Amino acid sequence: MSQSSEQEIRINEDDFIVSKTDTKGKITYCNRIFMSIAGYSEKELLNQPHNIIRHPDMPRSVFRLLWNTLQEGKEFFGVIKNKTRQNNYYWALANVTPSYDEQGQLIGYYSVRRSPSRKAIEAVTALYQQMLAEEARHSSAQEAMDASHKILDDALKQSGKKYNEFVLSFEK
Ligand SMILES: Cc1cc2nc3c(=O)[nH]c(=O)nc-3n(C[C@H](O)[C@H](O)[C@H](O)COP(=O)(O)O)c2cc1C
């Protein structure tokens, strides 16, 4: 689990955090609010892999779901905990979509994030803790992700929702 000295930073209600990546997930654009909350300059972020803001409390299998969803050409909604340069964190309700050129070729991805509701944060915190603990129990990365994904799948079955519907169900 994360360090207790970490502070939670809240995204302002009216703010949108935007980034774009190439097809590999390297940052090609980010807006001012992204830079200000993450604590990095534009120069430090451009061309960096998006995992520069990855928080260790995030289960790997959530990112596998993100990439699998994008590779199917679909949009992803998720509640994601991100780390700032100062070792603080913020929760984001992220919408990630594939971008295509005029010929229909994939050119990259686009993400818009806003502040999730407290209820959404509470629901995923409990779930992600279980998933993370399960991932830590396996030495094989594949087994860890499969076992963690099963916890997510079981929770979703109980709620009768897909992951995107589940995370959006807490919003007004
Ligand atoms: C458009 C886009 C936005 C992303 N936003 C985030 C983000 O806010 N936080 C994050 O940890 N990963 C984000 N990712 C996923 C990262 O590319 C990466 O898969 C993730 O941080 C896990 O890193 P790892 O595979 O090195 O463990 C994003 C990916 C894309 C394509």
Secondary structure elements and pairings:
Layout: E1 17-21, E2 27-30, H1 32-38, H2 42-45, H3 60-71, E3 76-83, E4 89-100, E5 106-114, H4 118-136, H5 141-159, H6 163-168
Antiparallel strand pairs: 1-2, 1-5, 3-4, 4-5
Helix pairs in contact: 3-5, 4-5
Flavin mononucleotide (FMN) is lined by residues 19, 21, 25, 50-51, 53-54, 58, 60, 63, 66, 80, 82, 94, 96, 109, 111.
Class computed from helices, strands and strand pairing: alpha+beta
Helicity level: 25-40%
The shape, in one word, is globular
Name the CATH homologous superfamily.
Answer: PAS domain
As a whole number of angstroms, the C-alpha radius of gyration is 16 Å
**Averaged pLDDT:** 95
Small molecules bound: flavin mononucleotide
Could you characterize the architecture of this molecule?
- The structure is a single chain.
- The protein has helices at 32-38, 42-45, 60-71, 118-136, 141-159, 163-168; strands spanning 17-21, 27-30, 76-83, 89-100, 106-114.
- By secondary structure, it is of the alpha+beta class.
- A hairpin with a 5-residue loop joins β1 (17-21) and β2 (27-30).
- The model has no long low-confidence stretch (mean pLDDT 95).
- The structure holds flavin mononucleotide.
- Residues 19, 21, 25, 50-51, 53-54, 58, 60, 63, 66, 80, 82, 94, 96, 109, 111 line the site of flavin mononucleotide (FMN).
Question: What is this structure, in a nutshell?
Answer:
This protein is α+β, with helices and mostly antiparallel strands and 172 residues long.
Task: Looking at this protein, list some descriptive labels.
single chain; 172 residues; alpha+beta; Beta-Lactamase; five-stranded antiparallel β-sheet; 5 strands; 39% helix; globular; binds flavin mononucleotide
